[in-house]
Amino acid sequence: EVQLVESGGGLIQPGGSLRLSCAASGFTVSSSYMSWVRQAPGKGLEWVSVIYSGGDTHYAESVEGRFTISRDSSKNTAHLQMDSLRAEDTAVYYCAREMEDAFDLWGQGTMVTVSS
Amino acid sequence: DIQMTQSPSTLSASVGDRVTITCRASQSLNNWVAWYQQKPGKAPKLLIYKASSLESGVPSRFSGSGSGTEFTLTITSLQPDDFATYYCQQYKWDMYTFGQGTKLEIK
Predict the structure, then answer these.
(1) For labelling alongside B64, which of A58, B37, B75, B89 has CA 20 to 30 A away?
(2) How far apart are CA A35 and CA B9, in angstroms?
């Protein structure tokens, strides 16, 4: 079955770090474009970061310099390292696969709460 | 950054109605526009990609059109399962932007 499963969310204090994981099955992460998209409580969708099949990475301005996207081919998993977390980073974080410039496969999401 | 202005923000309609949601881009796009449906507590679901291509398994009552800076999602003959929130999304210059969403409510 083709699917994405996120993990690693939780409650973290402002300034702290968290690493999210996105385990893929049914396709190869390293051959795909993989993104992270977040949704703050009661708000809309916000794209966060992408890693291309060639390894290039790009970030939204709101997380540039604080978040790092990566992948582990041996585990068929994508990661999002989140440092210097702020209250405004509180959201459900989804990983998604991109095909034809659209996100055709999404995980179930993992909640990140930044609060003291 | 390219902004996507989606309208209306809320839409009330009845089962069987035809509805249209519009997204306007702040710059001309090369038709890399997608539409998603999201229900509470669930991940978004892809409906339309490349402005007008229907994702596999999506009912044909959903259609997309547009070019340049204006894109539309049309749902003909609304079904009870269609009441949800809809988002447009663009891709250009290694950046992705979503519209702010349209909540489709039962009248």
Answers:
(1) A58
(2) 26
Quick check: A104 and B55 CB within 8 A? yes
3-state secondary structure B39-76: CCCCCCEEEEECCCEECCCCCCCEEEEEEEEEEEEEEC
What per-residue confidence (pLDDT) applies to B23?
Answer: 98
From the candidates A34, A35, A45, which should be mutated to test the interface with B, based on the most B CB atoms within 10 A? A45
Q: Does B44 touch chain A (CB under 8 A)?
A: yes
Structure tokens that stand for B87 in this block:
């988002």
What does pLDDT average to in each consecutive run of 10 residues of chain A (116 residues)? 98 98 98 98 98 97 98 98 98 96 97 98
pLDDT the model gives residue A97: 98
Q: Which residue of A has its CA nearest to B53?
A: A100
* pLDDT band at residue B30 using 50, 70 and 90 as cut-offs: confident
**A52/A41 Cα distance (integer angstroms):** 28
Determine whether the interchain pair B34/A35 forms a contact, defined as Cβ–Cβ distance below 8 Å. Answer: no
Quote the CA–CA distance of A92 and A108 in Å, as a whole number. 9
CA angle B95, B96, B98 (to 5 degrees): 150
3-state SS class at A73: helix
pLDDT tens figures, B48-58: 999 999 999 99
